[in-house]
Specification:
There is one protein chain. With 356 residues, the protein is α/β, with parallel strands linked by helices. It folds into two domains: 300 residues, Vaccinia Virus protein VP39 (Rossmann fold), CATH 3.40.50; 35 residues, no CATH class. A hairpin with a 5-residue loop joins strand 14 and strand 15. Helix 2 runs parallel beside helix 4, helix 3 packs across helix 4 and helix 8 packs across helix 9. The protein is globular. It starts with 12 loop residues before the first strand and ends in a 9-residue tail after the last strand. The N terminus and C terminus are likely disordered.
């Protein structure tokens, strides 16, 4: 008999913890309005999450549809605002959707993000695009059958904050200089002066070696071994492979892998950019807990929230060892989890700093 994927309403509870993180089982709205969520109020540096996308067809990871999705996402704005510090950030990935039975894109993704932004009184610090060139051609009817549309291969990521100047440092996410820039730094020569765009390039403007280039706001999922055509001014993310520790753990334990996992380097990019060591990162729609694994590997504390017990169980495979509470736990005012009674330690994945 196939295990049920969509979760029933569950009472919020602690699922497991690691050296730096805590996994909570339950719906985000229930967990964050319960005593479990109290210690994190105002102590979170980054909410990084990818909620179920606003699709117009039902998927097994429990997405809402249409106007109901807009209202649902909007309802979290004030909740997340109370979570983060005054200099904290919210980064949210939302995918695209299409009108049912029509070769026309829906505006649900943008409507949802705008509704969330306005309800929370947030500033849109910057919009990012994650482009995945390896994504399967979709919608199939319009792309591969009738051939009247191009495959939909990107999602939006909005970086929001109640502060116009939240904590951030792009020096933590510099990318390698291009070959041309390395030659320029070596020869100390380039064409300075006025450009057709009316910009004036100084004679020494590009002679300082800053140990890397400032990345673009376009994030690309690519296989770096085979994709040599990725533009040089984008962040190239390593491709996710089928034989990860997470998927192996799910197969070995009979768990259903989450069908819509993001690449771990997408989470790593924003965690590096917007937080520092020992900061607290929260993912209210954790899925397979990619965010928690990324935070742990970067020495950040983390809290994940997920209502689907099967996905919670599978996420244990992302960590070398998890601690299962046998009794009640306490959580400090700074957001650290502390278990008050003996617990059971379980070995799971190989290493929190492995490839995912």
């Amino acid at each position: 008999m196939k295990k049920k994927i969509e979760p029933d309403r569950v009472k919020p509870s602690k699922a497991f913890r690691t050296k730096l993180g805590l996994s909570l089982h339950g719906f985000a709205e229930d967990v964050l309005s319960s005593k479990l969520g109290d210690p994190f109020q105002g102590n979170v540096d980054l909410v990084f999450t990818s909620p179920p996308f606003p699709l117009n067809t039902k998927k097994k990871y429990d997405n809402l549809q249409g106007d109901a999705y807009v209202a649902w996402l909007k309802s979290f704005a004030q909740t997340f605002k109370k979570l983060i510090k005054p200099t904290g950030s919210i980064v949210m990935e939302v995918g695209n959707s299409w009108e049912p039975g029509k070769p026309v894109m829906s505006t649900l993704a943008l409507e949802s993000l705008l509704a969330f932004l306005k309800e929370g009184g947030f500033h849109l610090c910057q919009q990012f695009i994650w482009h995945n060139p390896a994504k399967l051609p979709s919608p199939a009817q319009w792309v591969t059958i009738e051939r009247i549309r191009i495959k939909d291969s990107y999602t939006h990521l909005w970086w929001m904050s109640p502060n116009e100047r939240p904590k951030a440092d792009n020096r933590r996410v510099l990318v390698e200089y291009s070959a041309a820039m390395n030659r320029l730094l070596e020869t100390k020569t380039y064409n300075s002066g006025h450009r057709p765009s009316q910009h004036k390039i100084g004679a020494s403007s590009f002679l300082t070696n800053n140990n890397g280039a400032i990345p673009s706001s376009v994030l690309v999922e690519a296989d770096t071994e085979h994709d040599n055509n990725a533009p040089s001014n984008v962040i190239t993310l390593a491709n996710t492979h089928a034989s990860t520790d997470y998927q192996n753990y799910c197969r070995e334990h009979g768990h259903e892998p989450h069908p819509a996992r993001m690449p771990i380097r997408l989470a790593e990019f924003f965690i590096k950019f917007l937080t520092e060591t020992n900061d607290l990162v929260v993912d209210p729609f954790a899925g397979s807990n990619t965010t928690g694994a990324a935070a742990e590997s970067l020495s950040r504390r983390w809290v994940s929230i997920e209502p689907n017990q099967l996905y919670v169980e599978g996420s244990k495979g992302r960590f070398p060892k998890v601690v299962l509470p046998k009794a009640s736990t306490e959580t400090t005012a700074s957001g650290n989890a502390r278990l008050s009674k003996p617990v059971k330690s379980v070995k799971c994945g190989k290493s929190s700093k492995r490839k995912h």
